[in-house]
């Protein structure tokens, strides 16, 4: 059980008390680890397994030292109870998440998208005088997945469907990666899997790396969003395709069931969900039809 007394672990007198950087905190106690893992799980669905105490400790350590706390319990109270704690939550999420991503990370999914999935959807929409497709990169990290989708559609589909309108939304719980995504400037590491053809056509060299072409950038919007927050999830509706890759691995079964049920509701009828190579919906959802494509599978809303 969490101790709900305001600032029970602290003798904080003022905000100035917080800004005493680079102290060394006492080690994370077992009790504090339990409090933290429950709090993180309840707030964003990420489960730190019982054997991951040292991992969580090392992730939190930077913020604890930066803010000058002498214990993880003091930091816990700060995040939960202080006004500044509301802002601190974003740094907490940045500290505990893994944001690894790169352009064209899952080429078979992109191939399935442009060759098989989207053409009939576009044709069906055009019959009703509509021309907009909507795609969501959920847990988009710094934006590489969302921009890869945009590049693939512009390069391979737009010539066949000149009236096509494209709306791509990227969301992530971490404010820092969302800001990077909005800038659209990347280091070589991010483009290591990108063909010379695409690099030449859709990127230009700038100070600090390679910048995405403005015509691609304008198709994609990014915002901070927690996939574990039911209210935010209900605002994400009518998507033709959702990519939610390499984030389910951080959730336990209950969190996955909740997130996947919400993603199902966010899809249009017959829309598709793609997840990561190493992820599965086995025992998580029976609502989707499994569809095979060359070297990948997709989950279709029936
Ligand atoms: C490994 S990256 C995956 C990026 C991209 N989808 C890909 O496959 O390359 C996982 C992302 O999930 C985000 N994340 C973790 N928990 C989340 C949550 N509850 N809501 C939204 N995003 C979350 C992290 O911030 C991180 O950027």
List the main descriptive attributes of the protein structure presented here.
alpha/beta, about 300 residues, seven-stranded mixed beta sheet, binds S-adenosylmethionine, 2 domains, three-stranded antiparallel beta sheet, Chemotaxis Receptor Methyltransferase Cher, domain 1, 11 helices, disordered N terminus, Rossmann fold
Count of all domains: 2
Bound molecules: S-adenosylmethionine
DSSP, total strands: 10
Strand order of the largest sheet: 6-2-1-7-8-10-9
**For the record, what is the CATH homologous superfamily label of the largest domain?**
Vaccinia Virus protein VP39
Q: Mind summarizing the main beta sheet?
A: 7 strands, mixed
Structural class category: alpha/beta
CATH class group of the largest domain:
Alpha Beta
Distance between the termini: 41 Å
- Helical coverage, percent range: 40-55%
Poorly predicted ranges (pLDDT <50, ≥5 residues)?
A: 1-7, 10-19
The gyration radius over C-alpha positions equals 21 Å
- Our count of helices gives 11
CATH fold type of the largest domain: Rossmann fold
**CATH-scheme architecture of the largest domain:** 3-Layer(aba) Sandwich
Mean of the pLDDT scores? 92
Order of helices and strands: HHHHHEHEHEHEEHEHEHEEE
Share of residues in strands: 15-25%
What shape does the CA trace take? globular
